[in-house]
Amino acid sequence: MTADMPIRKRIFVSYSHKDTRLFEEFKTMLAPAIRSGLVDLWDDQKISPGANWKKEIQEALASASVAVLLVSQNFLASHFITEKELPPLLKAAGEEGVTIFWIYLSSCLVKQTEIASYQAAHDTSRPLDRLPKSQRQAVLSEVCTKLIRAAAERAASPQVKAEWSLIVARTREAVPVKSGPHKDHLGPKRREQIATPLHSSSFDRKTEGVARIFISHSRKDTPLVEALVQLLEGGIGIRSFQIICSSLEEQAIPAGADFKRHIMEALGDAQVVVAVVTAQYYESAFCMCELGAAWALTKRCVPLLVPPVNSTDLRGSLFGTQAIPIDDERSLDTMHSVLQSLAQSPESVTRWNKRKSQFLKLLSGVLASLEQAKTSVMTIPPEKRAPIPEDLMGAVRQIRDQARRRPGAIKAFDTVHFLYLVSTDFSAKVIKTYEVRAVGESLHFWESEISSADEADAAESFESICFRVRDVSGVVDKNVVYLPTSNELRRKGACIFFLPPVKPKNDLRKIEISYAWKGLLRRLAKVPEDLNFNTKVRDKMRSCTIEIYIQEGFEQRLDCDITGAHYPKESLQSASYETSDGSWRGKGYRYTVLDLPKGENRLTLRARLSG
Fold first, then answer.
1. Which of 42, 182, 222, 475 supports an S-S bond with 247, CB 3.0-4.6 Å?
2. Which of helix, strand or coil describes residue 162?
């Protein structure tokens, strides 16, 4: 440790004098630990009369290892706190590992501040000033216990600042998506469990090279997650240090930790993500972000469907995936086959069947104890569904740009098929199917964009047009997910990730993109509409087909012409179409081109109504 690096060991308390009553309650609860020397608490009451109070506060800030923030509207309105105390504390949290430990005193706009990115010391659904005194005292007792533990963990490492500086330096040099959890954010038990090869000077031998499983879930489903973890450990042989699950007591995110950073780094450390999909899961914007990032950064995801959620309820990046009903015996066997290869000490099939039966017997009681959402995922109004945060789209663009810098990965199409089903109100369901292969190096992602004319209805979200992406190759262990990169009213951009990546040569993936846009072809009522496909063929492309059908009931007749380039093996035929369930019927045209040559190819089918 260098001479100019003071040891941080104090607990600094930042509060508004207008909240003195609640501050005194907190300090009274902590009094036994202060008196016994378990904690070294500093607050501005320690400033002696006549002392240079600004200098004393600066020295206290510089020596703090834990910062306790008593957050309220008074706290956030204080110019001195927000300008003089918070900036150095938050900077030290990022650069030196100082723990931010905040307590929610009263309702305020804390979510609009940087403080919200750190884990609160207690449940913030009810601020302390709303609680009866007995309940408030119970919360303060729990908070002070956590604070004592955090202070003890900090005191156990006198060189924590030097170690943290090394961690920060290595983190800046490391590739972001490969990072693991910071050891100094974790308790002693978790430090033994988590390997952080990019963030520490040496590996933990227990977890070096070990496959990790991240369990993505809503905190409201903790009892179910605990039962699932017991099944993974006792039935499959997954060791506890292989599981990353923030709801388990020994793996909880420490109070004051930057929980977004903590979770995202844990995701980067995982090889497999098990998503416990409940109605509560879909109501959480953070769970949606967590899932999207998990799928972007890992090779495999195992979604578990929890009743009443079923496969028809799946939304966003989960749509079209092979999900596993958690209450189905055969489906659990599928989960076993996927995860067994990760087990450090694989259990026998006999033991798996026994633990599986025990799990299924207990499942109904566990599900009954959960706080089930009153509405199904399908009936949640769009305005109440988890929105797509701008920072998530920014993260996706960052991942895309990072991957783009790697040369050599080229996307090539083997076949392309576009299908337009136009309803009598000129709304259209569009299904685009591509057979994709990689040229040169493995293909990790593919950018896609859809748009509409001004005459179409504005689409506020991907969900409003039922945007879906799925792998229809028929191969169990291959999948695809999308994350949004832009969300304009008449233009949507998506980054489609291949799981696993498409390998060069013989790896052919069949991808289906579908959406239903209200009024998409409304312009067709007045003027012809061009349906285009443009691509650059590097070798040769087997076929491209564009089909358009108008629903029975149209007063006018659909006609189509080829207006783009002409090809030796092209055909335009009138045809009819009917969905498999018979709910939609129509007549139209099928335009097909075989053996597209190398180079630029521009196919255009012009549709118009007549009669």
1. 222
2. helix
Which residues of the chain register pLDDT less than 50? Answer: 1-7, 156-207, 298, 320, 373-393, 395, 402, 405, 408
C-alpha 298/C-alpha 34 separation (Å) is: 45
pLDDT at position 371 is: 58
Identify the CA nearest to 379 among candidates 514, 484, 517, 282: 282
CB within 8 Å of 545: residues ≥ 6 apart: 415, 416, 417, 418, 590, 591, 592, 593
Q: Residue 569: give its domain's CATH number.
A: 2.60.40
Token digits of residue 79: 């110019």
The answer to the question of residue 545 being in a domain is yes
Token code pair at residue 96: 């030196």
Ordered alpha helix ranges (H), 257-389: 259-268, 279-283, 285-297, 329-339, 349-369
Q: How many domains would you assign to the chain?
A: 3
Please give the order of strands across the beta sheet that includes 599-610. 529-537, 599-610, 557-562
The token duo for 111 is 């979510």
Whether residue 193 is contained in a domain is answered as yes
Rounded-to-integer distance, Cα 30 and Cα 41, Å: 9
183 and 273 co-located in one domain: yes
Backbone angles phi, psi at 277, to 5 degrees: -95, 105
Residues 326 and 220 in one domain: yes
DSSP classification of residue 202:
S
CA-closest candidate to residue 608, choices 585, 588, 580, 579: 588
- Please indicate, yes or no, whether residues 204 and 254 belong to a single structural domain of this protein: yes
Q: What is the pLDDT of residue 3?
A: 39
- 570 and 451 in a common domain: yes
CB neighbour list of residue 103: distance below 8 Å, 6 or more residues apart:
26, 68, 69, 70, 71, 120, 121, 122, 128, 143
User: Which residue range is the domain that position 370 belongs to?
Assistant: 176-384
In a domain, 35, yes or no: yes
Residue 363 tokens, joined: 């499942």
Is the whole model's pTM more than 0.70, yes or no?
A: no
> For the chain, give me the number of helices (H) and strands (E)?
15, 22
Same domain, yes or no, for 304 and 401?
no
378, two tokens: 């399908």
Cα Rg for the chain, rounded, in angstroms?
A: 29
Residue 163 within any structural domain of the chain: no
| 493, containing H or E segment | strand 491-502
CATH at 282:
3.40.50.10140
Q: Are residues 151 and 214 in the same domain?
A: no
Long-range CB pairs of 377-381 (<8 Å, 24+ gap) are 377/279, 377/282, 377/309, 377/313, 377/315, 378/312, 378/313, 380/282, 380/283
Decide which of 384, 400, 426 is a domain's last residue.
Answer: 384
Which ranges in 496-605 belong to alpha helices (H)?
none
- What pLDDT sits at residue 76? 93
Q: In terms of domains, do 183 and 139 share one?
A: no
Domain final position from 384, 402, 426: 384
Runs of H (alpha helix) within 343-440:
349-369, 390-404
Beta bridge mates, 80: none
Based on the fold, state whether residues 380 and 430 are members of the same structural domain. Answer: no
